[in-house]
Design brief:
Helix content is 71%, strand content 0%. By secondary structure, the chain is an all-alpha fold.
Length: 410
């Protein structure tokens, strides 16, 4: 349990985390590249450690996650001792210990009591971010300028921005808000912002997360979710309107080259960036089997000179790169949240089972085709969104009290 005063303090800290996550571009301007996201890591560590102090019981999922986190440090230390990695690479230990700390606190009453507060605060943060992204495209010389030809909102990079939108889109779409006008207009703006980022990961997340939720739901429940079709079809009507508005803006601004760029981002035949990724992906298992124990954290996409272990490969995929870095236990890292969510989902009403499936499938697919969670912002917000959103659905849309009891134990 958590007392009222402490809960209020933690709520303010979570609000600060949401604000910091939405303004990494501003923080970079004033504090520099390292502290733009470093300050977010510190605040998150602070609140998660304080929450963890109150934890009394650990189950097998907790132990598995802790073992995976410790192993990732050990395998990295081996290469540091050998002299093939710089000791500075241990700075990247946040990439495994932060998710571990957040997950260990998943059943804390704080996450259950404040899930709606978190999601609504996140909605307004992402909305302001996306409004700025639209302004950015109209005025490329804005205070935080457009990232080449891609919108990045108030973030330090397009990857930061699209990663945040990807992990937040479905939770924000399905959080209950009284005013439908505010909800619909907000989600349209956020979706347009995602389109303007020209992120293939964001598009794969939204469209494939939606489409694949149907067969996933059918497999889990042995029936087709017919009752959901009408309501969820409305989502795609909104998406169609958003794309129409986007096309209108492009044509009216005479930016047809950007229009071409947008519809070329999923081209795996002639787009050089995509061709390189696809060639690396198809050979992943041959590379992985060269050293299934891993090469250590920070090998891929790091900002310091750590990529010195011979024959390491950058797959431009967070999931594949993580498996490559920490080896076979990387599979445990990605399977643990699926096991936890699968326990939760069976107690949800049918409609919200599919909603949760959209969210999980979308996140995994985005990080399969992109390195979104390599940025601390997206890493932290993805795990926070997963815990808060799952707790929000179970607390509000369980079929019976058994689901609420399960939410306290798993």
């Amino acid at each position: 349990m958590i007392n009222v005063r402490l809960n209020k303090i933690f709520k303010y800290i979570i609000l600060i985390i949401i604000i910091l996550a939405n303004i990494t571009g501003i923080l970079k301007f004033f504090l520099g590249t390292f502290w733009a996201e470093g300050i977010l890591i510190i605040f998150t560590l602070f609140v998660m450690i304080l929450l963890l102090i109150q934890k009394k019981r650990y189950n097998y999922l907790d132990i598995l996650f802790i073992i995976t986190a410790i192993y990732s440090i050990l395998i990295t230390s081996v290469f540091i001792i050998k002299g093939t990695l710089n000791i500075e690479v241990l700075l990247y230990s946040y990439s495994i210990f932060l998710p571990c700390l957040i997950f260990l606190n998943r059943n804390h009453t704080f996450f259950k009591k404040n899930s709606k507060f978190y999601l609504i605060s996140l909605l307004f943060g992402v909305l302001i971010n996306s409004l700025y992204a639209i302004y950015q495209v109209i005025n490329p010389n804005a205070f935080i300028p457009i990232d080449g030809i891609r919108a990045r909102g108030l973030m330090k990079s397009t990857l930061n921005y699209s990663g945040l939108l990807g992990c937040a889109f479905f939770p924000l779409l399905f959080v209950n808000i009284k005013s439908k006008i505010i909800k619909i207009s907000s989600m349209l703006i956020i979706f347009i912002g995602g389109i303007l980022s020209q992120s293939k990961g964001f598009l794969v997340n939204i469209f494939c997360g939606y489409l694949l939720s149907f067969p996933a739901y059918t497999i889990l429940n042995n029936k087709i979710p017919k009752k959901n079709l009408k309501e969820i079809f409305g989502i795609f009507i909104l998406i169609f309107i958003a794309i129409s508005l986007f096309i209108y803006i492009i044509i009216s601004m005479d930016l047809l080259d950007r229009f071409y760029q947008l519809f070329n981002i999923l081209n795996f035949k002639t787009n050089d960036s995509n061709v390189g990724r696809f060639n690396a992906w198809k050979d992943f298992f041959s590379y992985f089997m060269c050293n299934p124990l891993g090469y250590g954290i920070g090998q891929i996409g790091s900002n310091i000179d750590t990529q010195v272990v011979e024959n390491t490969v950058n797959f431009e995929s967070y999931i594949l790169d993580t498996l490559y870095e920490i080896g076979i236990l990387g599979f445990v890292y990605f399977i643990i949240p699926i096991i936890w969510i699968s326990k939760k989902i069976k107690y949800l009403k049918a409609y919200y089972k599919q909603v949760l499936l959209m969210f999980v499938i979308g996140i995994y697919l985005q990080n399969l085709v992109q390195v979104s969670m390599y940025t601390p912002t997206t890493l932290i917000m993805t795990w926070l969104n997963m815990i808060f959103f799952t707790n929000y659905l179970v607390s509000n849309y369980s079929k019976n009290k058994e689901g609420l009891n399960e939410n306290n134990n798993s």
